[in-house]
Amino acid sequence: MNQELVTKKFPVTDAVREAMAVSLRGAEELLPKEDWEQKLARSAATGVPLRIKLGLDPTAPDIHIGHTVVLNKMRQLQDLGHQVIFLIGDFTSMIGDPSGRNTTRPPLTAEQIKANAETYRAQADKILDPAKTELRYNSEWSDPLGARGMIQLAAKYTVARMMERDDFHKRFTEGRPISIHEFLYPLMQGYDSVALKSDLELGGTDQKFNLLMGRHLQQEYGQEPQCILTMPLLEGLDGVEKMSKSKGNYIGVTEEPNTMFAKVMSISDTLMWRWYTLLSFRSQAEIEKLKSEIDGGRNPRDAKVMLAKEITARFHDAAAAEGAEQDFVNRSKGGVPDDIPEVTLSGAPLGIAQLLKQAGLAPSTSEANRLIDGGGVRVDSSAVSDKGLKLEAGKYVVQVGKRKFARVTLG
Protein backbone atom coordinates (compact mmCIF):
# COMPACT_ATOMS: atom_id res chain seq x y z
CA MET A 1 0.00 0.00 0.00
CA ASN A 2 1.08 3.58 -0.69
CA GLN A 3 3.08 4.67 2.37
CA GLU A 4 1.56 8.14 2.18
CA LEU A 5 -1.94 6.66 2.64
CA VAL A 6 -0.75 4.58 5.59
CA THR A 7 0.64 7.58 7.47
CA LYS A 8 -2.00 10.14 6.46
CA LYS A 9 -4.58 11.07 9.11
CA PHE A 10 -8.15 10.66 7.80
CA PRO A 11 -11.25 12.34 9.29
CA VAL A 12 -13.44 10.27 11.63
CA THR A 13 -16.97 10.81 10.30
CA ASP A 14 -20.30 9.66 11.76
CA ALA A 15 -20.22 6.73 9.34
CA VAL A 16 -16.80 5.73 10.67
CA ARG A 17 -18.02 5.99 14.27
CA GLU A 18 -21.00 3.77 13.37
CA ALA A 19 -18.63 1.23 11.78
CA MET A 20 -16.55 1.28 14.98
CA ALA A 21 -19.68 0.58 17.02
CA VAL A 22 -20.50 -2.39 14.77
CA SER A 23 -16.91 -3.65 15.14
CA LEU A 24 -17.03 -3.43 18.93
CA ARG A 25 -20.49 -4.98 19.38
CA GLY A 26 -20.07 -8.00 21.65
CA ALA A 27 -16.29 -7.99 21.13
CA GLU A 28 -13.87 -8.97 23.86
CA GLU A 29 -10.93 -6.89 22.62
CA LEU A 30 -9.99 -4.74 19.62
CA LEU A 31 -6.28 -3.94 19.27
CA PRO A 32 -5.20 -1.26 18.57
CA LYS A 33 -8.52 0.63 18.48
CA GLU A 34 -6.98 3.83 17.11
CA ASP A 35 -5.37 1.95 14.20
CA TRP A 36 -8.65 0.24 13.29
CA GLU A 37 -10.53 3.54 13.44
CA GLN A 38 -7.99 5.05 11.03
CA LYS A 39 -8.22 2.04 8.71
CA LEU A 40 -12.02 2.51 8.64
CA ALA A 41 -11.59 6.24 8.02
CA ARG A 42 -9.12 5.59 5.19
CA SER A 43 -11.49 3.06 3.62
CA ALA A 44 -14.39 5.52 3.83
CA ALA A 45 -12.30 8.30 2.23
CA THR A 46 -10.74 6.22 -0.56
CA GLY A 47 -13.56 3.75 -1.25
CA VAL A 48 -11.12 0.83 -0.92
CA PRO A 49 -12.61 -2.00 1.22
CA LEU A 50 -10.58 -3.41 4.09
CA ARG A 51 -9.47 -7.05 4.05
CA ILE A 52 -10.88 -8.95 7.01
CA LYS A 53 -9.63 -12.45 7.69
CA LEU A 54 -10.99 -15.35 9.72
CA GLY A 55 -9.10 -18.61 9.73
CA LEU A 56 -10.65 -21.85 10.94
CA ASP A 57 -8.94 -25.21 11.11
CA PRO A 58 -11.35 -27.98 10.08
CA THR A 59 -10.52 -30.13 13.11
CA ALA A 60 -14.00 -31.59 13.74
CA PRO A 61 -17.02 -32.42 11.58
CA ASP A 62 -19.56 -31.09 14.11
CA ILE A 63 -20.11 -27.36 14.46
CA HIS A 64 -22.33 -25.74 17.09
CA ILE A 65 -23.69 -22.20 17.12
CA GLY A 66 -20.94 -21.14 19.55
CA HIS A 67 -18.51 -21.56 16.65
CA THR A 68 -20.55 -19.09 14.57
CA VAL A 69 -20.01 -16.04 16.83
CA VAL A 70 -16.93 -14.95 14.86
CA LEU A 71 -18.72 -15.69 11.57
CA ASN A 72 -21.56 -13.39 12.66
CA LYS A 73 -19.04 -10.62 13.29
CA MET A 74 -17.60 -11.24 9.82
CA ARG A 75 -21.08 -10.85 8.33
CA GLN A 76 -21.62 -7.54 10.16
CA LEU A 77 -18.35 -6.19 8.73
CA GLN A 78 -19.18 -7.64 5.32
CA ASP A 79 -22.47 -5.73 5.38
CA LEU A 80 -20.43 -2.54 5.89
CA GLY A 81 -18.88 -3.19 2.48
CA HIS A 82 -15.54 -4.75 3.45
CA GLN A 83 -13.91 -7.78 1.86
CA VAL A 84 -14.10 -10.82 4.11
CA ILE A 85 -11.78 -13.78 3.67
CA PHE A 86 -12.90 -17.15 5.01
CA LEU A 87 -9.64 -19.05 5.36
CA ILE A 88 -9.71 -22.81 5.79
CA GLY A 89 -6.55 -23.97 7.52
CA ASP A 90 -6.04 -27.20 5.62
CA PHE A 91 -2.24 -26.89 6.04
CA THR A 92 -2.23 -25.75 9.68
CA SER A 93 -4.65 -28.56 10.57
CA MET A 94 -1.83 -30.98 9.82
CA ILE A 95 0.22 -29.31 12.59
CA GLY A 96 -2.59 -28.93 15.14
CA ASP A 97 -3.31 -25.73 17.06
CA PRO A 98 -1.68 -25.94 20.53
CA SER A 99 -3.89 -23.10 21.88
CA GLY A 100 -5.13 -24.01 25.36
CA ARG A 101 -3.73 -27.52 25.11
CA ASN A 102 -1.79 -29.29 27.85
CA THR A 103 -0.83 -32.12 25.49
CA THR A 104 0.24 -32.29 21.85
CA ARG A 105 -2.79 -32.31 19.54
CA PRO A 106 -2.81 -35.38 17.27
CA PRO A 107 -2.59 -34.38 13.59
CA LEU A 108 -5.50 -35.13 11.25
CA THR A 109 -5.30 -37.10 8.03
CA ALA A 110 -5.73 -35.35 4.68
CA GLU A 111 -9.05 -37.19 4.22
CA GLN A 112 -10.41 -35.99 7.60
CA ILE A 113 -9.34 -32.42 6.83
CA LYS A 114 -11.02 -32.47 3.39
CA ALA A 115 -14.31 -33.84 4.75
CA ASN A 116 -14.41 -31.39 7.66
CA ALA A 117 -13.48 -28.45 5.41
CA GLU A 118 -16.51 -29.14 3.20
CA THR A 119 -18.75 -29.07 6.29
CA TYR A 120 -17.23 -25.78 7.49
CA ARG A 121 -17.66 -24.15 4.10
CA ALA A 122 -21.32 -25.23 3.86
CA GLN A 123 -22.06 -23.79 7.30
CA ALA A 124 -20.16 -20.55 6.62
CA ASP A 125 -22.32 -20.03 3.53
CA LYS A 126 -25.39 -19.91 5.78
CA ILE A 127 -23.99 -16.84 7.57
CA LEU A 128 -21.68 -15.04 5.15
CA ASP A 129 -22.78 -13.79 1.73
CA PRO A 130 -21.09 -16.41 -0.50
CA ALA A 131 -21.00 -14.05 -3.50
CA LYS A 132 -18.98 -11.51 -1.50
CA THR A 133 -16.74 -13.93 0.40
CA GLU A 134 -13.18 -14.78 -0.63
CA LEU A 135 -12.67 -18.47 0.18
CA ARG A 136 -9.03 -19.50 0.57
CA TYR A 137 -7.02 -22.50 1.79
CA ASN A 138 -3.68 -21.83 3.46
CA SER A 139 -2.02 -24.73 1.66
CA GLU A 140 -1.96 -22.34 -1.35
CA TRP A 141 1.11 -20.51 0.05
CA SER A 142 2.21 -22.85 2.86
CA ASP A 143 3.01 -25.85 0.64
CA PRO A 144 5.19 -23.84 -1.81
CA LEU A 145 7.09 -22.27 1.12
CA GLY A 146 9.20 -25.42 1.38
CA ALA A 147 12.00 -26.19 3.83
CA ARG A 148 14.07 -23.12 2.90
CA GLY A 149 11.10 -20.78 3.35
CA MET A 150 10.12 -22.42 6.63
CA ILE A 151 13.63 -21.86 8.04
CA GLN A 152 13.57 -18.22 6.93
CA LEU A 153 10.16 -17.77 8.56
CA ALA A 154 11.29 -19.43 11.81
CA ALA A 155 14.21 -16.98 11.97
CA LYS A 156 11.76 -14.09 12.45
CA TYR A 157 10.72 -15.09 16.00
CA THR A 158 12.62 -16.10 19.13
CA VAL A 159 12.19 -19.10 21.40
CA ALA A 160 12.05 -16.76 24.42
CA ARG A 161 9.05 -14.93 22.92
CA MET A 162 7.39 -18.22 22.00
CA MET A 163 7.78 -19.48 25.57
CA GLU A 164 5.90 -16.43 26.89
CA ARG A 165 2.79 -18.07 25.51
CA ASP A 166 0.67 -19.36 28.43
CA ASP A 167 0.10 -22.95 27.29
CA PHE A 168 3.75 -23.48 26.29
CA HIS A 169 5.01 -21.91 29.52
CA LYS A 170 2.67 -24.02 31.64
CA ARG A 171 3.57 -27.26 29.89
CA PHE A 172 7.29 -26.49 30.15
CA THR A 173 7.15 -25.74 33.90
CA GLU A 174 5.06 -28.89 34.50
CA GLY A 175 7.52 -31.03 32.56
CA ARG A 176 4.97 -31.88 29.84
CA PRO A 177 6.38 -32.41 26.34
CA ILE A 178 6.24 -29.70 23.69
CA SER A 179 6.98 -30.84 20.16
CA ILE A 180 9.07 -28.55 17.94
CA HIS A 181 6.38 -28.62 15.23
CA GLU A 182 3.96 -26.92 17.65
CA PHE A 183 6.11 -23.78 17.50
CA LEU A 184 5.40 -23.71 13.77
CA TYR A 185 1.65 -23.34 14.25
CA PRO A 186 1.51 -19.67 15.36
CA LEU A 187 4.21 -18.85 12.80
CA MET A 188 2.17 -20.38 9.97
CA GLN A 189 -1.06 -18.71 11.13
CA GLY A 190 0.80 -15.40 11.26
CA TYR A 191 2.21 -16.00 7.79
CA ASP A 192 -1.37 -16.38 6.51
CA SER A 193 -1.88 -12.69 7.34
CA VAL A 194 1.22 -11.82 5.32
CA ALA A 195 0.03 -13.87 2.33
CA LEU A 196 -3.46 -12.32 2.44
CA LYS A 197 -2.35 -8.76 3.36
CA SER A 198 -5.11 -8.65 5.97
CA ASP A 199 -6.18 -5.44 7.71
CA LEU A 200 -8.05 -7.20 10.52
CA GLU A 201 -8.00 -10.75 11.82
CA LEU A 202 -10.79 -12.21 13.95
CA GLY A 203 -10.61 -15.05 16.43
CA GLY A 204 -11.73 -16.35 19.80
CA THR A 205 -10.13 -15.08 22.99
CA ASP A 206 -7.93 -18.20 23.01
CA GLN A 207 -6.36 -17.10 19.70
CA LYS A 208 -4.82 -13.81 20.87
CA PHE A 209 -1.20 -15.00 20.74
CA ASN A 210 -1.63 -16.33 17.20
CA LEU A 211 -3.38 -13.14 16.04
CA LEU A 212 -0.61 -10.94 17.44
CA MET A 213 1.91 -13.13 15.60
CA GLY A 214 0.25 -11.99 12.37
CA ARG A 215 0.91 -8.33 13.30
CA HIS A 216 4.55 -9.11 14.11
CA LEU A 217 5.22 -11.00 10.87
CA GLN A 218 3.51 -8.39 8.69
CA GLN A 219 5.91 -5.79 10.12
CA GLU A 220 8.82 -8.17 9.51
CA TYR A 221 7.75 -8.43 5.86
CA GLY A 222 7.30 -4.66 5.48
CA GLN A 223 3.49 -4.62 5.53
CA GLU A 224 1.12 -2.42 7.50
CA PRO A 225 0.24 -4.57 10.56
CA GLN A 226 -3.26 -5.94 10.92
CA CYS A 227 -5.54 -5.11 13.83
CA ILE A 228 -6.99 -7.97 15.85
CA LEU A 229 -10.53 -8.48 17.10
CA THR A 230 -11.26 -11.23 19.62
CA MET A 231 -14.77 -12.49 20.31
CA PRO A 232 -15.87 -14.18 23.55
CA LEU A 233 -16.70 -17.86 23.82
CA LEU A 234 -20.49 -18.28 23.88
CA GLU A 235 -22.18 -19.58 27.04
CA GLY A 236 -24.22 -22.72 26.42
CA LEU A 237 -27.84 -23.54 27.19
CA ASP A 238 -27.11 -23.66 30.94
CA GLY A 239 -25.87 -20.05 30.89
CA VAL A 240 -22.81 -21.04 32.94
CA GLU A 241 -20.36 -23.21 31.01
CA LYS A 242 -19.03 -22.33 27.57
CA MET A 243 -20.96 -24.07 24.82
CA SER A 244 -19.47 -27.52 24.29
CA LYS A 245 -20.64 -30.78 22.81
CA SER A 246 -18.94 -32.69 25.63
CA LYS A 247 -20.97 -30.72 28.21
CA GLY A 248 -24.24 -31.31 26.34
CA ASN A 249 -25.17 -27.61 26.49
CA TYR A 250 -24.92 -26.94 22.78
CA ILE A 251 -27.06 -26.42 19.68
CA GLY A 252 -25.59 -28.12 16.62
CA VAL A 253 -25.99 -26.17 13.39
CA THR A 254 -27.27 -29.32 11.66
CA GLU A 255 -29.90 -30.14 14.30
CA GLU A 256 -33.44 -30.43 13.00
CA PRO A 257 -35.58 -27.24 13.22
CA ASN A 258 -37.93 -28.30 16.03
CA THR A 259 -35.07 -29.25 18.33
CA MET A 260 -33.10 -26.11 17.49
CA PHE A 261 -36.09 -23.85 18.18
CA ALA A 262 -36.97 -25.61 21.44
CA LYS A 263 -33.37 -25.41 22.70
CA VAL A 264 -33.25 -21.65 22.13
CA MET A 265 -36.55 -21.32 23.99
CA SER A 266 -35.02 -23.20 26.94
CA ILE A 267 -32.37 -20.53 27.72
CA SER A 268 -32.86 -18.02 30.53
CA ASP A 269 -34.25 -14.53 29.92
CA THR A 270 -30.89 -13.10 31.02
CA LEU A 271 -28.83 -15.26 28.64
CA MET A 272 -31.21 -14.37 25.82
CA TRP A 273 -29.81 -10.81 25.59
CA ARG A 274 -26.24 -12.10 25.48
CA TRP A 275 -27.22 -14.37 22.59
CA TYR A 276 -28.97 -11.46 20.86
CA THR A 277 -25.74 -9.45 20.97
CA LEU A 278 -23.52 -12.27 19.71
CA LEU A 279 -25.81 -14.25 17.39
CA SER A 280 -28.54 -11.98 16.03
CA PHE A 281 -28.30 -9.98 12.80
CA ARG A 282 -30.66 -7.37 14.25
CA SER A 283 -29.05 -3.98 14.80
CA GLN A 284 -28.05 -2.93 18.30
CA ALA A 285 -30.73 -0.21 18.09
CA GLU A 286 -33.42 -2.84 17.38
CA ILE A 287 -32.23 -4.97 20.28
CA GLU A 288 -32.23 -1.99 22.67
CA LYS A 289 -35.77 -1.10 21.56
CA LEU A 290 -36.92 -4.68 22.17
CA LYS A 291 -35.24 -4.73 25.58
CA SER A 292 -37.00 -1.46 26.46
CA GLU A 293 -40.36 -2.99 25.51
CA ILE A 294 -39.67 -6.00 27.75
CA ASP A 295 -38.70 -3.68 30.62
CA GLY A 296 -42.00 -1.88 29.99
CA GLY A 297 -44.08 -5.01 30.50
CA ARG A 298 -43.96 -6.96 27.23
CA ASN A 299 -43.61 -10.72 27.71
CA PRO A 300 -39.91 -11.78 27.42
CA ARG A 301 -41.17 -14.91 25.69
CA ASP A 302 -41.98 -12.78 22.62
CA ALA A 303 -38.34 -11.74 22.32
CA LYS A 304 -37.16 -15.31 22.81
CA VAL A 305 -39.49 -16.57 20.08
CA MET A 306 -38.08 -13.93 17.71
CA LEU A 307 -34.53 -15.08 18.49
CA ALA A 308 -35.42 -18.78 18.15
CA LYS A 309 -37.07 -18.14 14.76
CA GLU A 310 -34.11 -16.09 13.52
CA ILE A 311 -31.55 -18.75 14.45
CA THR A 312 -33.68 -21.63 13.12
CA ALA A 313 -34.36 -19.81 9.84
CA ARG A 314 -30.64 -19.11 9.39
CA PHE A 315 -29.70 -22.78 9.41
CA HIS A 316 -32.88 -24.05 7.75
CA ASP A 317 -35.40 -21.59 6.27
CA ALA A 318 -38.31 -19.32 7.27
CA ALA A 319 -40.93 -22.04 6.68
CA ALA A 320 -39.04 -24.47 8.93
CA ALA A 321 -38.83 -21.79 11.64
CA GLU A 322 -42.58 -21.17 11.44
CA GLY A 323 -43.25 -24.90 11.67
CA ALA A 324 -40.88 -25.24 14.63
CA GLU A 325 -42.72 -22.46 16.45
CA GLN A 326 -46.05 -24.21 15.91
CA ASP A 327 -44.57 -27.52 17.05
CA PHE A 328 -43.28 -25.81 20.22
CA VAL A 329 -46.72 -24.31 20.92
CA ASN A 330 -48.37 -27.72 20.47
CA ARG A 331 -45.94 -29.37 22.85
CA SER A 332 -46.29 -26.66 25.47
CA LYS A 333 -50.03 -27.29 25.44
CA GLY A 334 -49.45 -31.00 25.93
CA GLY A 335 -50.21 -31.79 22.31
CA VAL A 336 -48.46 -34.38 20.18
CA PRO A 337 -46.47 -33.14 17.19
CA ASP A 338 -47.68 -34.30 13.76
CA ASP A 339 -44.31 -35.56 12.60
CA ILE A 340 -43.00 -38.13 15.09
CA PRO A 341 -41.10 -41.38 14.47
CA GLU A 342 -43.12 -44.55 13.79
CA VAL A 343 -41.69 -47.59 15.56
CA THR A 344 -42.82 -51.20 15.30
CA LEU A 345 -41.82 -53.58 18.10
CA SER A 346 -42.63 -57.16 19.04
CA GLY A 347 -42.63 -59.13 22.29
CA ALA A 348 -45.86 -58.00 23.98
CA PRO A 349 -46.35 -57.79 26.85
CA LEU A 350 -43.19 -55.63 26.96
CA GLY A 351 -41.78 -53.85 30.01
CA ILE A 352 -41.84 -50.06 29.78
CA ALA A 353 -38.09 -49.69 30.30
CA GLN A 354 -37.32 -52.20 27.56
CA LEU A 355 -39.83 -50.48 25.25
CA LEU A 356 -38.19 -47.10 25.78
CA LYS A 357 -34.78 -48.59 24.97
CA GLN A 358 -35.96 -50.46 21.86
CA ALA A 359 -37.88 -47.41 20.59
CA GLY A 360 -34.74 -45.30 20.83
CA LEU A 361 -36.21 -43.04 23.53
CA ALA A 362 -33.62 -44.04 26.15
CA PRO A 363 -30.05 -45.31 25.69
CA SER A 364 -30.46 -48.10 28.26
CA THR A 365 -33.05 -49.69 30.55
CA SER A 366 -31.33 -48.20 33.60
CA GLU A 367 -31.61 -44.71 32.08
CA ALA A 368 -35.24 -45.48 31.18
CA ASN A 369 -35.95 -46.35 34.82
CA ARG A 370 -34.28 -43.13 35.92
CA LEU A 371 -36.52 -41.17 33.54
CA ILE A 372 -39.60 -42.92 34.95
CA ASP A 373 -38.51 -42.09 38.51
CA GLY A 374 -38.14 -38.45 37.43
CA GLY A 375 -41.68 -38.32 36.08
CA GLY A 376 -40.46 -37.77 32.52
CA VAL A 377 -42.27 -40.62 30.77
CA ARG A 378 -45.82 -40.57 29.38
CA VAL A 379 -47.85 -43.14 27.49
CA ASP A 380 -50.87 -41.75 25.66
CA SER A 381 -50.50 -38.51 27.66
CA SER A 382 -50.62 -40.32 31.03
CA ALA A 383 -47.55 -40.12 33.28
CA VAL A 384 -45.88 -43.45 34.05
CA SER A 385 -44.78 -43.99 37.67
CA ASP A 386 -44.62 -47.82 37.75
CA LYS A 387 -41.28 -49.14 36.47
CA GLY A 388 -42.85 -52.62 36.39
CA LEU A 389 -45.51 -51.57 33.84
CA LYS A 390 -45.90 -53.98 30.92
CA LEU A 391 -47.68 -52.90 27.74
CA GLU A 392 -49.91 -55.32 25.83
CA ALA A 393 -50.08 -55.45 22.04
CA GLY A 394 -51.47 -52.23 20.57
CA LYS A 395 -50.60 -48.70 19.44
CA TYR A 396 -49.21 -46.10 21.82
CA VAL A 397 -47.85 -42.55 21.73
CA VAL A 398 -44.84 -42.59 24.03
CA GLN A 399 -43.22 -39.38 25.25
CA VAL A 400 -39.95 -38.80 27.10
CA GLY A 401 -39.32 -35.31 28.46
CA LYS A 402 -40.65 -32.38 26.48
CA ARG A 403 -39.19 -33.17 23.10
CA LYS A 404 -38.94 -36.93 22.48
CA PHE A 405 -41.92 -38.75 21.01
CA ALA A 406 -42.56 -42.03 19.20
CA ARG A 407 -45.71 -43.66 17.83
CA VAL A 408 -45.15 -47.30 18.85
CA THR A 409 -46.96 -50.29 17.36
CA LEU A 410 -46.37 -53.22 19.70
CA GLY A 411 -47.04 -56.73 18.37
UniProtKB/TrEMBL annotation:
Residues 350-411 form the RNA-binding S4 domain. It is found in: Cytoplasm. One of its GO terms (molecular function) is ATP binding. Keywords: Aminoacyl-tRNA synthetase, ATP-binding, Cytoplasm, Ligase, Nucleotide-binding, Protein biosynthesis, RNA-binding. It catalyses: tRNA(Tyr) + L-tyrosine + ATP = L-tyrosyl-tRNA(Tyr) + AMP + diphosphate + H(+). PANTHER family: TYROSINE--TRNA LIGASE, TYROSYL-TRNA SYNTHETASE. Homodimer. This is Tyrosine--tRNA ligase. The lineage of its organism: Bacteria, Pseudomonadati, Pseudomonadota, Betaproteobacteria, Burkholderiales.
